[in-house]
Design a protein that fits this description.
alpha/beta
Length: 299
Protein backbone atom coordinates (compact mmCIF):
# COMPACT_ATOMS: atom_id res chain seq x y z
CA UNK A 1 0.00 0.00 0.00
CA UNK A 2 1.19 3.51 0.77
CA UNK A 3 4.88 3.93 1.54
CA UNK A 4 5.91 4.25 5.19
CA UNK A 5 6.74 7.95 4.89
CA UNK A 6 3.13 8.70 4.05
CA UNK A 7 1.49 6.56 6.71
CA UNK A 8 0.46 7.89 10.10
CA UNK A 9 0.42 5.60 13.16
CA UNK A 10 -2.39 5.44 15.67
CA UNK A 11 -3.04 6.82 19.15
CA UNK A 12 -6.06 7.33 21.39
CA UNK A 13 -8.10 10.55 21.17
CA UNK A 14 -7.54 12.99 24.00
CA UNK A 15 -10.37 14.26 26.18
CA UNK A 16 -11.22 17.98 26.18
CA UNK A 17 -10.84 19.98 29.35
CA UNK A 18 -14.00 22.01 28.85
CA UNK A 19 -17.06 22.30 26.65
CA UNK A 20 -17.96 24.19 23.48
CA UNK A 21 -20.90 26.55 23.59
CA UNK A 22 -24.40 25.53 22.56
CA UNK A 23 -24.56 28.35 20.03
CA UNK A 24 -21.44 27.14 18.27
CA UNK A 25 -23.02 23.76 17.62
CA UNK A 26 -19.98 22.03 19.09
CA UNK A 27 -21.36 20.64 22.34
CA UNK A 28 -20.71 16.89 22.23
CA UNK A 29 -22.68 14.20 24.08
CA UNK A 30 -19.58 12.00 24.11
CA UNK A 31 -16.79 14.28 25.32
CA UNK A 32 -14.41 11.42 26.08
CA UNK A 33 -13.84 10.68 22.40
CA UNK A 34 -13.36 14.09 20.81
CA UNK A 35 -11.16 17.14 21.11
CA UNK A 36 -12.35 20.71 21.28
CA UNK A 37 -13.03 22.23 17.86
CA UNK A 38 -10.30 24.34 16.32
CA UNK A 39 -12.86 26.48 14.47
CA UNK A 40 -16.01 27.94 16.05
CA UNK A 41 -18.97 28.97 13.92
CA UNK A 42 -22.25 30.28 15.26
CA UNK A 43 -25.40 28.86 13.69
CA UNK A 44 -26.24 32.22 12.00
CA UNK A 45 -22.71 32.33 10.55
CA UNK A 46 -23.04 28.75 9.31
CA UNK A 47 -26.38 29.51 7.69
CA UNK A 48 -24.90 32.58 6.01
CA UNK A 49 -21.96 30.60 4.61
CA UNK A 50 -24.22 27.86 3.26
CA UNK A 51 -26.50 30.40 1.61
CA UNK A 52 -23.53 32.05 -0.15
CA UNK A 53 -21.84 28.79 -1.15
CA UNK A 54 -24.97 27.01 -2.36
CA UNK A 55 -24.83 28.38 -5.90
CA UNK A 56 -21.05 28.45 -6.27
CA UNK A 57 -19.06 26.08 -8.48
CA UNK A 58 -17.22 23.39 -6.46
CA UNK A 59 -13.90 24.80 -7.67
CA UNK A 60 -14.78 28.16 -6.13
CA UNK A 61 -15.95 26.50 -2.92
CA UNK A 62 -12.60 24.71 -2.70
CA UNK A 63 -10.72 27.94 -3.37
CA UNK A 64 -12.65 29.62 -0.55
CA UNK A 65 -12.08 26.71 1.84
CA UNK A 66 -8.32 26.67 1.26
CA UNK A 67 -8.25 30.28 2.45
CA UNK A 68 -10.90 30.21 5.17
CA UNK A 69 -10.31 26.91 7.03
CA UNK A 70 -6.99 26.12 8.75
CA UNK A 71 -5.84 22.52 9.25
CA UNK A 72 -7.97 21.41 6.31
CA UNK A 73 -7.77 17.82 5.01
CA UNK A 74 -9.61 15.68 2.49
CA UNK A 75 -11.07 12.36 3.63
CA UNK A 76 -11.47 10.02 0.68
CA UNK A 77 -11.96 6.42 -0.37
CA UNK A 78 -10.88 7.46 -3.87
CA UNK A 79 -14.35 7.40 -5.31
CA UNK A 80 -15.16 9.53 -8.35
CA UNK A 81 -16.13 12.67 -6.45
CA UNK A 82 -13.06 12.46 -4.25
CA UNK A 83 -10.91 12.14 -7.36
CA UNK A 84 -12.49 15.24 -8.90
CA UNK A 85 -11.71 17.05 -5.64
CA UNK A 86 -8.05 15.98 -5.82
CA UNK A 87 -7.80 17.14 -9.43
CA UNK A 88 -9.40 20.53 -8.74
CA UNK A 89 -7.18 21.08 -5.69
CA UNK A 90 -4.14 20.28 -7.81
CA UNK A 91 -5.15 22.96 -10.29
CA UNK A 92 -5.74 25.45 -7.46
CA UNK A 93 -2.26 24.68 -6.10
CA UNK A 94 -0.75 25.65 -9.45
CA UNK A 95 -2.87 28.78 -9.45
CA UNK A 96 -1.64 29.75 -5.94
CA UNK A 97 1.54 27.77 -5.11
CA UNK A 98 1.89 29.38 -1.68
CA UNK A 99 -1.62 28.51 -0.54
CA UNK A 100 -2.46 25.80 1.99
CA UNK A 101 -1.74 22.27 0.72
CA UNK A 102 -4.49 19.71 1.37
CA UNK A 103 -3.35 16.23 2.44
CA UNK A 104 -5.56 13.16 2.05
CA UNK A 105 -6.87 10.81 4.73
CA UNK A 106 -7.47 7.23 3.54
CA UNK A 107 -9.02 4.59 5.79
CA UNK A 108 -7.44 1.27 4.86
CA UNK A 109 -9.93 -1.27 6.18
CA UNK A 110 -7.62 -4.03 4.86
CA UNK A 111 -10.55 -5.26 2.75
CA UNK A 112 -10.41 -2.86 -0.19
CA UNK A 113 -10.30 -4.21 -3.73
CA UNK A 114 -6.82 -4.50 -5.22
CA UNK A 115 -8.03 -2.05 -7.88
CA UNK A 116 -8.55 0.54 -5.13
CA UNK A 117 -5.03 0.07 -3.74
CA UNK A 118 -3.64 0.37 -7.27
CA UNK A 119 -5.59 3.60 -7.76
CA UNK A 120 -4.15 5.12 -4.57
CA UNK A 121 -0.64 4.66 -5.95
CA UNK A 122 -1.61 6.14 -9.33
CA UNK A 123 -3.13 9.21 -7.63
CA UNK A 124 -0.04 9.73 -5.49
CA UNK A 125 2.18 9.55 -8.55
CA UNK A 126 -0.01 11.78 -10.72
CA UNK A 127 -0.67 14.54 -8.17
CA UNK A 128 2.26 14.23 -5.77
CA UNK A 129 -0.19 14.44 -2.88
CA UNK A 130 0.48 13.18 0.63
CA UNK A 131 -1.81 10.37 1.78
CA UNK A 132 -2.19 9.62 5.50
CA UNK A 133 -3.23 5.97 5.80
CA UNK A 134 -5.10 4.80 8.89
CA UNK A 135 -5.78 1.11 9.51
CA UNK A 136 -7.70 -0.67 12.27
CA UNK A 137 -5.82 -0.23 15.55
CA UNK A 138 -2.97 -2.65 16.32
CA UNK A 139 -3.14 -4.61 13.05
CA UNK A 140 -1.44 -4.35 9.67
CA UNK A 141 -2.85 -7.28 7.70
CA UNK A 142 -6.10 -9.19 7.16
CA UNK A 143 -4.52 -12.19 8.89
CA UNK A 144 -3.80 -10.14 12.01
CA UNK A 145 -7.28 -8.60 11.91
CA UNK A 146 -9.00 -11.98 11.69
CA UNK A 147 -6.76 -13.52 14.35
CA UNK A 148 -7.91 -10.76 16.69
CA UNK A 149 -11.58 -10.47 15.74
CA UNK A 150 -12.41 -13.73 13.93
CA UNK A 151 -13.19 -14.43 10.30
CA UNK A 152 -15.92 -12.51 8.50
CA UNK A 153 -16.58 -10.01 11.29
CA UNK A 154 -18.24 -7.90 8.58
CA UNK A 155 -20.95 -10.60 8.45
CA UNK A 156 -21.19 -11.71 12.07
CA UNK A 157 -21.22 -8.16 13.49
CA UNK A 158 -21.26 -5.50 10.79
CA UNK A 159 -21.66 -2.61 13.25
CA UNK A 160 -18.65 -3.74 15.25
CA UNK A 161 -16.71 -4.14 12.01
CA UNK A 162 -17.59 -0.61 10.90
CA UNK A 163 -16.48 0.76 14.25
CA UNK A 164 -13.13 -1.06 14.25
CA UNK A 165 -12.30 -0.65 10.55
CA UNK A 166 -13.69 2.81 9.83
CA UNK A 167 -15.14 4.91 12.65
CA UNK A 168 -12.34 4.55 15.20
CA UNK A 169 -9.53 4.98 12.62
CA UNK A 170 -11.15 8.18 11.35
CA UNK A 171 -11.50 9.55 14.88
CA UNK A 172 -7.84 8.68 15.42
CA UNK A 173 -6.93 10.48 12.19
CA UNK A 174 -8.76 13.62 13.29
CA UNK A 175 -6.95 13.53 16.63
CA UNK A 176 -3.42 12.75 15.40
CA UNK A 177 -3.53 15.19 12.49
CA UNK A 178 -5.34 17.85 14.53
CA UNK A 179 -7.97 18.17 11.80
CA UNK A 180 -10.14 21.29 12.03
CA UNK A 181 -12.09 20.86 8.77
CA UNK A 182 -12.40 18.06 6.26
CA UNK A 183 -13.52 17.85 2.63
CA UNK A 184 -15.82 14.96 1.71
CA UNK A 185 -17.13 13.60 -1.58
CA UNK A 186 -20.76 13.30 -0.53
CA UNK A 187 -23.50 14.51 -2.86
CA UNK A 188 -27.26 14.92 -2.54
CA UNK A 189 -27.80 12.90 -5.71
CA UNK A 190 -26.43 9.83 -3.91
CA UNK A 191 -29.74 9.68 -2.03
CA UNK A 192 -30.49 8.22 1.37
CA UNK A 193 -29.33 10.35 4.28
CA UNK A 194 -27.40 12.54 1.85
CA UNK A 195 -30.46 13.96 0.12
CA UNK A 196 -30.56 17.17 2.18
CA UNK A 197 -26.82 17.62 2.59
CA UNK A 198 -25.59 21.20 3.23
CA UNK A 199 -22.33 22.45 1.78
CA UNK A 200 -20.88 23.04 5.26
CA UNK A 201 -21.96 21.17 8.38
CA UNK A 202 -20.77 20.79 11.96
CA UNK A 203 -19.77 17.36 13.22
CA UNK A 204 -20.14 18.23 16.88
CA UNK A 205 -19.32 14.71 18.08
CA UNK A 206 -15.94 14.69 16.39
CA UNK A 207 -15.18 18.38 16.75
CA UNK A 208 -14.64 19.07 13.04
CA UNK A 209 -16.32 20.97 10.24
CA UNK A 210 -17.31 18.87 7.21
CA UNK A 211 -17.39 20.48 3.79
CA UNK A 212 -19.26 18.93 0.87
CA UNK A 213 -18.17 21.00 -2.17
CA UNK A 214 -20.03 18.79 -4.65
CA UNK A 215 -23.31 18.60 -2.74
CA UNK A 216 -25.18 19.93 -5.79
CA UNK A 217 -23.50 17.81 -8.47
CA UNK A 218 -24.98 14.74 -10.13
CA UNK A 219 -23.15 11.51 -10.93
CA UNK A 220 -23.19 12.52 -14.62
CA UNK A 221 -21.45 15.83 -13.86
CA UNK A 222 -18.76 14.06 -11.85
CA UNK A 223 -18.23 11.44 -14.55
CA UNK A 224 -18.05 14.10 -17.28
CA UNK A 225 -15.34 15.96 -15.34
CA UNK A 226 -13.35 12.73 -14.92
CA UNK A 227 -13.50 12.12 -18.67
CA UNK A 228 -12.81 15.70 -19.75
CA UNK A 229 -9.77 16.10 -17.48
CA UNK A 230 -8.45 12.56 -17.85
CA UNK A 231 -8.56 11.96 -14.09
CA UNK A 232 -7.43 8.47 -13.01
CA UNK A 233 -10.27 6.39 -11.58
CA UNK A 234 -11.01 2.92 -10.23
CA UNK A 235 -10.99 0.24 -12.94
CA UNK A 236 -14.08 -1.31 -11.28
CA UNK A 237 -16.19 1.58 -12.56
CA UNK A 238 -15.86 0.12 -16.05
CA UNK A 239 -17.31 -3.14 -14.75
CA UNK A 240 -20.65 -1.86 -13.49
CA UNK A 241 -19.64 -0.44 -10.12
CA UNK A 242 -20.53 3.16 -9.25
CA UNK A 243 -19.64 3.38 -5.54
CA UNK A 244 -16.75 1.22 -4.40
CA UNK A 245 -16.11 0.18 -0.81
CA UNK A 246 -14.84 -3.09 0.68
CA UNK A 247 -14.85 -6.10 -1.61
CA UNK A 248 -17.08 -8.09 0.76
CA UNK A 249 -19.90 -5.52 0.73
CA UNK A 250 -19.79 -3.98 -2.76
CA UNK A 251 -21.45 -5.26 -5.92
CA UNK A 252 -22.09 -3.78 -9.40
CA UNK A 253 -25.13 -1.54 -9.80
CA UNK A 254 -27.93 -2.60 -12.11
CA UNK A 255 -29.36 -0.20 -14.67
CA UNK A 256 -31.87 2.12 -13.03
CA UNK A 257 -30.62 1.50 -9.49
CA UNK A 258 -29.38 4.28 -7.23
CA UNK A 259 -25.70 5.12 -7.36
CA UNK A 260 -25.00 3.56 -3.95
CA UNK A 261 -27.33 0.58 -4.41
CA UNK A 262 -24.30 -1.69 -4.70
CA UNK A 263 -23.12 -0.89 -1.17
CA UNK A 264 -24.26 -3.30 1.57
CA UNK A 265 -26.69 -5.01 -0.82
CA UNK A 266 -29.44 -6.74 1.11
CA UNK A 267 -28.48 -5.12 4.42
CA UNK A 268 -30.46 -2.54 6.35
CA UNK A 269 -27.86 0.21 6.06
CA UNK A 270 -26.71 2.93 3.68
CA UNK A 271 -23.79 4.38 5.67
CA UNK A 272 -20.82 2.83 7.48
CA UNK A 273 -20.98 5.18 10.43
CA UNK A 274 -18.28 7.75 9.69
CA UNK A 275 -20.89 10.27 8.51
CA UNK A 276 -23.60 9.33 10.98
CA UNK A 277 -24.15 11.22 14.21
CA UNK A 278 -23.15 8.01 15.97
CA UNK A 279 -22.68 4.53 14.59
CA UNK A 280 -24.98 1.94 16.11
CA UNK A 281 -21.99 0.24 17.67
CA UNK A 282 -20.88 3.54 19.21
CA UNK A 283 -24.35 3.90 20.72
CA UNK A 284 -24.06 0.38 22.12
CA UNK A 285 -20.71 1.25 23.71
CA UNK A 286 -22.25 4.29 25.42
CA UNK A 287 -25.14 2.16 26.71
CA UNK A 288 -22.74 -0.49 28.01
CA UNK A 289 -20.61 2.13 29.76
CA UNK A 290 -23.70 3.63 31.41
CA UNK A 291 -24.88 0.17 32.48
CA UNK A 292 -21.49 -0.68 33.98
CA UNK A 293 -21.37 2.66 35.79
CA UNK A 294 -24.83 2.01 37.21
CA UNK A 295 -23.76 -1.44 38.45
CA UNK A 296 -20.67 0.05 40.11
CA UNK A 297 -22.79 2.69 41.87
CA UNK A 298 -25.19 0.02 43.14
CA UNK A 299 -22.28 -2.10 44.36
Amino acid sequence: MADDSRTETSSQLSSPADHGSVDSGFVSPNLSTVSLPRIALTQPHLQHLNKQLESMHPRDILRFCKIFFPSLYQSTAFGLTGLVTVDMLSKLDKESPDSQQIDLIFLDTLYHFQETYDLVERVKERYNVKVHVFKPADVETVEQFEALYGEKLYETSSDLYDWIAKVEPLQRAYSELKVAAVLTGRRRSQGGQRGSLPVIELDDERGVIKINPFANWSFAQVKDYITEHNVPYNALLDRGYKSVGDWHSTVPVAEGEDERAGRWKGQDKTECGIHNKQSRYAQWLVQQAARQQGQQVQA
